[in-house]
Amino acid sequence: MAGHSKWANIQHRKGRQDAKRGKVFTKLIKEITVAARMGGGDPNFNPRLRLAVDKAKAENMPGDNIDRAVKRGTGELDGVTYEEARYEGYGIGGAAVMVDCLTDNRTRTVADVRHAFSKFGGNMGTDGCVAFQFKHCGQMLFAPGTNEDALMEAALEAGAEDVVSNEDGSIEVLTAPYEMPAVQEALAKAGFKPEFAEVSMKPLNETVLTGEDAIKMQKLLDALESLDDVQDVYTSAEIDEV
After folding, report:
1. Each residue's pLDDT tens digit, 12-67
2. How far apart are CA 86 and CA 114, in angstroms?
3. Residues 32, 49 contacting (CB under 8 angstroms)
4. Cα 24 from Cα 217, distance rounded (Å)
């Protein structure tokens, strides 16, 4: 059942991410800088920046670090200019993989990503080869045992797009990408706190992997996530605990 458990799978992935917290501040600073450059330095009028700042605060990033990142993005301070790059491909069992990067050197980044794919049994594909298999959305996961009817009523009233019940009893609330903070805030006032919340690329279909395939896929994902220029890795693979 573990391989089919949304709850176990999310907790497993989150645990691995938490173990790599040394990179968290670096990733957040990059995201804040790029968000400010693209949409301005006021989080009230820049949903992407607001989301990045909220995430940084949740990770206890000092306010001075956040302010400097915003100012680098708006040009008030000098700094490295990062650009967005997305790479797509396939992992074990044909599972879709999407890799979002922020980089100051695309040549280096694409070489690193391609090497990780090839070394760990995946195949890097062309632009758009798997993107259609994902939905860009805000995703909040609530623990099994949460009152589904009450959560659904509160979520839809708050502006959520959908509420999904999983076989393991967990419940997902889905929102438009940058409306998630407002919906999450409304749900908190109604007494509902998610165990996991992020703006993500949610796979429309999942590929369940177990045994050796699960181990191999996890190694590929770990290799991609360890790259300095990688911000996020999304996959349609649902991995049994490895």
Report:
1. 565 555 555 568 899 999 999 999 999 999 999 999 999 999 999 988 999 999 99
2. 12
3. yes
4. 22
- Distance CA(207)–CA(156), nearest Å, equals 29
CA 113 from chain center: how many Å? 17
Q: Could you tell me the strand order of the sheet in which 96-103 lies?
A: 123-124, 83-90, 96-103, 230-235
Do 147 and 169 touch, CB atoms closer than 8 A? no
Whether residue 94 contacts residue 217, with contact meaning beta carbons closer than 8 Å, is answered with no
DSSP label of 210: -
- Cα separation of 94 and 220, whole Å? 13
**Phi/psi of residue 57, each to 5°?**
-65, -40
Q: Record the pTM.
A: 0.85
Residues in the chain with pLDDT values less than 70: 1-22, 241-242
Contact 99, 79 (CB under 8 A): no
Compute the distance between CA of residue 235 and CA of residue 112 in angstroms, rounded to an integer: 18
Interatomic CA distance for residues 68 and 80, integer angstroms: 12
Q: Domain extents for the chain? A: 2-74
2-74 has CATH 3.40.50.300 classification: no
